[in-house]
Amino acid sequence: MKFNINKAIQKISNRITFSPLNFRQVLLLLLLGAVSCQSIQKIPFLPTINSDLVIKNITVIDAKNGLQTNRIILIKGNKIIKNEPAESLSFEVDSPTVIDGKGKYLLPGLWDAHVHLSFIKELTPSMFPLFLAHGVTSIRDTGGQLHLVTPERAKARKDPQNTPRVMIAGPLLDGVPTVYDGSTNTNPHLGVGAGTIEEGNKLVDEMFAADVDLLKVYEMLSPEVYTSIIARAKKEGIVVTGHVPLSMDVIEASNLGLNSMEHLRNLEFACASDWEALKDTRRKMLFDGQSAIGSTLRRNIHSAQRSHAVGNQDATRRTEVLKVLAKNNTWQVPTLSIMTASTERFFLRNDWQDSYKYLPASVKETWIENSNKFGQTDILEDRKAYTNWVFEMIGHLKTAKVDIMAGTDCPIFYLTPGYSLHEELALLVKGGLTPLEAIEAATLKPAQYFSLDEELGLVQEGMFADLILLDANPLEDIRNTKKINAVIRDGKLHDRQALDQILAGLEGKE
Ligand SMILES: [Zn+2]
Description:
The protein is of the alpha/beta class.
């Protein structure tokens, strides 16, 4: 069978044969008298491998092997069954679908490790298609009420070929007062509060009953309740992420077994020269604010300490803190998209606002109006300093060998689901990661975090076929991750045309 190189995808039955000579060619040559019986014995019989999807002549990129040129990838069912050098194959392939990957790049599917599926209810139904169309084949929901996020996970599990893999934390396990208590639009009901160890236990029981994939602890927790929640989680073998409680220091929280931290939250306090005094002040503010509104109290504490802490970072103390994070495997999900949005203001870019067209009409209008309005405000000096601190911290984390995962916090702050993950990768590179390290943060690292790295995160035999095919090399320019030619999810090929159809189906929805 001859291949038309210009035609990327051939949906015809193909029998691919590879040099050296295959069995039929040998037989033919034998009949023609071109090879002697002796030489036949030296040529091995080439077995045929049945495959559902083949990508040939492809450059593969993953976090373990870097860049591998001219490979052939065989997919059967929802698994990768072969990743071999294309020129020296010892088998034949029978496959109904063959993609010529010449000039293209195959990567593991991307994760967005910080998502809130239920943050904007009107947007929830559009989120899975948006993720898939942008190559995000797995997500971690880092906070949402169980009755909202559990059905989404069930939906995804029922239809894995057309939805991302979904991991859920359930609601934020917060203290009293609770930050996300549903009191205002900007503080939807994402959190639940526990003031005592007993109340904390009850919440954890509910999470385990719902079979959550991780727990997320939050800022208003007391050290006692936090400690007890983490101990229960360790006993159950479940990972815990979170914001370091304001009542605690990062080192204390990490030593108790926190697996990851979101938004580098409250890390600036821990790295300040007067971190102990700051902690004492926070504890007093928390004690005095018992009857305050949770979101107000948290905001007041952040305002009272953040700029001061950012302006008084201590390099020695920072080294000590990061060493503890590295030793304890307290990974970081810096969510640079949301952390730097107010200064980077990518939401004013044409390409960014263009991504709003796939949002439901009401959300789209609000986002255009609000992002433009926000874009006209002055960039505050202390916010600029904070952004600088955030970017510099990426470099420090890298030096200290603290693991990083890519996550956005979409759909908060005009972060279009799926589209924003590509910005996160670019921002991680801006912060000092190499493009390959940024890709690792969105592929292998999240898989390792959930102990799924035997099955996911690399383009390797035996792994799930969650893959993206790119038209340009992301190692040359990380922004090339946006040039998506096809997405493969759970073995199913969604070519460019199919992805465009998914997106077109979202446009103009109410
Ligand atoms: Zn979040």
